[in-house]
Specification:
alpha/beta, six-stranded mixed β-sheet, elongated, 315 residues, receptor, 2-enoyl-CoA Hydratase, Chain A, domain 1, Transcription Regulator spoIIAA, 9 helices
Length: 315
């Protein structure tokens, strides 16, 4: 069916859910097929640890579906005014709100989400990207979107064989905090990268974010066990426990934020976090180097011993 051709899903390595939508059907179709979609698509992604929504090839859709799609990514218990659409021919405005109830489950707000975009992403898909970005619900990765019109209408010029295609509806916000929206300018990604590399970039971001709890735990242990300004440790631990990492999309972001916040609380410019990268281009030892420098110890086969070795070398 057309719906099957325009939508696909899978679970990627690292338990990352991947949903690609190339065309967004109208609300009537989604209502009729809602049970099928929830059972055969959505439930397969609910157990994932993070979600990638791929809209790089989405070039069409219906405004009526915006509340339906956004609602599955918005926490239950509250409704959110996500957009107001102005229609010129009828001179009317329509408010779009998330739904108070959805069929099946909503995707947990505690799980990370990435939306992939390209220069071909346009129309209703752009509005969805814009809404999710302004909500703070998704990290947008890829290219600036097309900046197309929300809805086009083909009009005959008099009784001739000539036609004019005009934008007849536009988004008024309200999440952008003003009349300026994505139309004409497109939606800027949080992380800009060529569209063909966007999925790989997104998976790298999610890998880093998945490691954040362990990184913070190691920092807390290091502060408790080694930091000489003992009186400042409780404030530093409180800072780490309550730090907002929602905007972290790279190791550079993480290092900059940790250093700025830790130094501000400790008033100690010597307190530094660094990311030590693997030395991929390090020169290989010359033959006989091991005999001169001593043989390197073998990596233990036992997992616990390997972890102990890592901890002993961690700085």
């Amino acid at each position: 069916s057309e719906l099957q051709r325009s939508m696909s899903y899978k679970v990627l390595e690292g338990n990352v859910g991947y949903l690609r939508i190339d065309s967004i059907p109208d609300q009537e179709v989604l209502s009729q097929l809602g049970g099928f979609l929830v059972t055969h698509v959505w439930r397969q992604l609910m157990g994932s640890s993070a979600l990638v929504l791929d809209l790089r090839h989405c070039t069409g859709g219906h405004v009526s579906s915006i509340p339906y799609l956004v609602s599955y990514l918005h926490p239950g218990g509250t409704v959110l005014h996500v957009d107001t659409i102005y229609n010129r021919p009828s001179n009317t405005t329509t408010e779009l709100w998330t739904l108070p109830q959805v069929l099946g489950e909503r995707y947990s707000a505690d799980k990370d989400m990435v939306v992939l975009t390209s220069g071909h992403t346009r129309g209703v898909a752009e509005d969805i990207v814009y809404i999710l970005k302004q909500m703070g619900r998704a990290i947008v990765v890829g290219e600036r979107t097309k900046g197309s019109a929300l809805e086009l209408q083909k009009l005959r010029i008099g009784h001739s064989d000539f036609f004019l295609t005009l934008p007849v509806s536009r988004s008024l916000g309200p999440l952008g905090g003003g009349s300026q929206t994505w139309e004409g300018s497109g939606v800027l990604p949080c992380v800009g990268t060529p569209a063909e590399q966007a999925l790989e970039k997104a998976l790298g971001i999610l890998t880093l974010r998945r490691a954040l709890p362990q990184i913070i735990q190691r920092l807390e242990e290091a502060l408790k066990n080694y930091y000489t300004l003992v009186s400042r440790v409780p404030a530093l631990l409180h800072l780490l426990a309550n730090m907002d990492f929602s905007a972290i999309v790279s190791e550079e972001d993480l290092v900059a934020k940790l250093n700025a916040d830790l130094q501000a609380v400790s008033e100690d410019p010597r307190l530094l976090v660094r990311a030590i990268m693997p030395r991929e281009n390090s020169p290989k030892p010359e033959p006989g180097a091991n005999e001169q420098l001593g043989t390197l110890p073998a990596v233990p086969e036992d997992e616990a011993a390997r972890q102990a070795l890592v901890k002993s070398e961690f700085q």
